[in-house]
């Protein structure tokens, strides 16, 4: 069983994917974390994010592994756990830059396919191109979307302590910028697969979204 969940930042993908994986006993793999890990490494090495040749060379000396755990995926970069370093605004912006390069994507997709196919009872894989490129044969495909304001608001609420940082307006602006880059890049732009169920979550509770996708999964299992 392969479940593909795609959508932009703040659409609820991670929460929905984690809940479904738990409910149906599937492995949950968060592919955005892999782009974040590569971006983090590039920042450490001083690699120019927009330099396709340099970024492609970096993939050749990088091993990224997602290790599923009860509190989500741990991200192992060249054997070191970098999970807690990947959610800063700097890494978030950098990940969107490194993900435009076709050769970087080809490398990521190969890794993601092999991780997904190794999952014994199936996988819920979450990202931007899972239903279109990584697993076009997925049995269940969902594309979650929401207004940019709703997504900015959710990310702002998730930020935790207000002193952690950014204003709602700033977060919303950054999401809009990332969206534009993710949706207009030439290599596998963010868009729903024609056979995906598109759910606008702007006015829906996460429980309602989870229930809707769970019903799809139940139907696909029969
Ligand atoms: O889901 P996320 O915010 O952690 O993703 C970080 C960046 O990685 C995002 O800007 C787009 C990119 N990404 C991608 O291009 N393809 C994926 N399958 C997952 C993420």
Q: What would you report as the Rg, rounded to the nearest angstrom?
A: 17 Å
Query: Which word captures the global form?
Result: globular
Identify every distinct bound molecule in the structure, by name, code or SMILES.
Answer: 2'-deoxycytidine-5'-monophosphate
CATH topology: Rossmann fold
Instruction: Kindly report the average pLDDT value.
Output: 94
Tally of strands: 8
For the biggest sheet, the summary is: 5 strands, parallel
How many structural domains in the coordinates?
1
CATH superfamily: P-loop containing nucleotide triphosphate hydrolases
Assess the beta-strand content as a share of residues.
15-25%
Q: Specify the CATH class.
A: Alpha Beta
Structural class: alpha/beta
Give the helix tally. 9
Taken in chain order, the helices and strands follow as EHEHHEEEHHEHEHHEH
């Amino acid at each position: 069983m392969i479940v593909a969940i795609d959508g932009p930042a703040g659409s609820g993908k991670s929460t929905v994917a984690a809940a479904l994986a738990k409910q149906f006993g599937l492995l949950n793999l968060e592919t955005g974390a892999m782009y974040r890990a590569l971006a983090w490494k590039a920042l450490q090495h001083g690699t120019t994010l927009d330099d396709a040749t340099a970024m492609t060379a970096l993939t050749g000396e990088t091993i990224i592994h997602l290790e599923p755990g009860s509190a989500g995926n741990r991200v192992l970069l060249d054997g070191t756990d970098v999970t807690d370093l990947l959610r800063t605004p700097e890494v978030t912006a950098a990940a969107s830059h490194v993900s435009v390069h076709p050769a970087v994507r080809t490398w990521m997709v190969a890794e993601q396919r092999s991780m997904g196919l190794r999952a014994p009872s199936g996988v819920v894989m979450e990202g931007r191109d899972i239903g279109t490129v990584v697993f076009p044969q997925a049995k269940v495909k969902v594309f979650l979307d929401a207004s940019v304001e709703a997504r900015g608001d959710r990310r702002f609420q998730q930020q935790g302590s207000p002193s952690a940082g950014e204003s709602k307006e700033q977060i919303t602006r950054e999401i809009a910028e990332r969206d534009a880059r993710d949706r207009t890049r030439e290599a596998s732009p963010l868009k729903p697969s024609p056979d995906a169920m598109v759910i606008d979550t702007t006015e829906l509770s996460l429980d309602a979204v989870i229930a809707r996708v769970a019903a799809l999964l139940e139907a696909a299992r029969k």
